[in-house]
Amino acid sequence: MTVQPTPPRPPRESRLRALDGLRLVAALMVAAYHYGGRGGEVTEAWGTSPKLQFPTLHAWFAYGCLGVQIFFVISGFVICMSGWGRPLRSFFASRASRLLPAYWCAVVLVAAVFALPVVAYEAVSPSDALVNLTMLQMPLGVDRVLGVCWTLWAEVRFYALFALFVVLPGASRRRTIMFCACWTLAAVIAQAAKEPLLDIVLMPEYAPFFVGGVGLYLVHRDRRDAYAWGIVGVSWLLGQHHVVRELWHAPGVDAFSYRSSAMIVLVVTLGFAAVAAVALGWLNRVNWRWLTVAGALTYPFYLVHEHLGWVVIGALHRGLHLSSAVTFTLTVASMLLLAWLIHRLVEKPATPRLRAVLAKDSRG
């Protein structure tokens, strides 16, 4: 009797450290936007408009909000990579354990700080703060503890769509391509239909970035895959259209800053190109170990930097009378330090335990 050899297992994905670095760059872009590229409540922290604090840089900081779109492209890539060949239970456990510990910590921390009498910003009600722990405050219309949590609501919907149509039946190239094509077409139809329910489910304004990231993961698997390149190309074309329509405005005295449509397209293009460079292996030499730490800090930094950053800016600039540049630098540094503490004290112990609990099959 001939014994058939066991087929070799597919190689595990090596850590793409350049992608970790790109995550941190996108997070710092968003922080620059929140600290110096917009008006609103950060004006109260500075005491005057950031336009006066950063007469030249504020116009560049205004493009930092596009870091969110770059995040979505990276997310599409990473979620497809992490969901490939995984059962649904494992995929869910991985995503939930990655998102929830730092998120819960950030919600509690920001809610507690804003409840302090010395902090001038309005805190949400205890009931609303509790609802925020579910990540479902956006569809319920509940006041947000974290200003950036709207992006997590988009991420959760993407995870649900990808889990239902790719992970559950079993990820494959053909199924993933069909998912990308169907979601793209459905999102365009939803845009034309102007039906709120379709907008909530299909996210026409964000779908091109998630789909583009998924397409780039297919490119990572096979750089000669014409269908994957087609997905990336169409996603870039649609994505830049949505962003220009949402973020461009005509120059005027009342505008905080003028965003050029050409510059918006350029930033979106550079975001796609950076992830494509990772997918093609062009950045494999960017393999420094500290980038793994940078990637680990990105998520907790993103969660806490906005609201707690206002408090730090006020204390340093109006309290200690430090210059705008020094205040900006120290605020970013302090938020990175806080992110490291959350990662070290919360994520590292809690994430593997939560993943093990959620991945365990409790059937008798």
Give a verbal description of the structure.
Helix 1 (17-36) runs parallel beside helix 15 (290-319) and helix 12 packs parallel to helix 14 (261-279). With 364 residues, this protein is mainly alpha-helical. It has helices spanning 17-36, 42-46, 50-53, 57-61, 67-83, 88-114, 126-132, 137-140, 149-167, 173-193, 196-202, 207-221, 226-247, 261-279, 290-319, 324-359. It contains 16 helices and no strands.
Short description:
With 364 residues, this protein is mostly helical.
Total number of helices: 16
- The SSE order reads HHHHHHHHHHHHHHHH
Q: Compute the gyration radius: what is it?
A: 21 Å
Total E-strand runs = 0
Distance between the termini: 38 Å
Mean pLDDT: 92
Helix content bin: over 70%
Largest sheet: none
Detail the poorly predicted runs.
1-12
Shape: globular
Strand content: under 5%
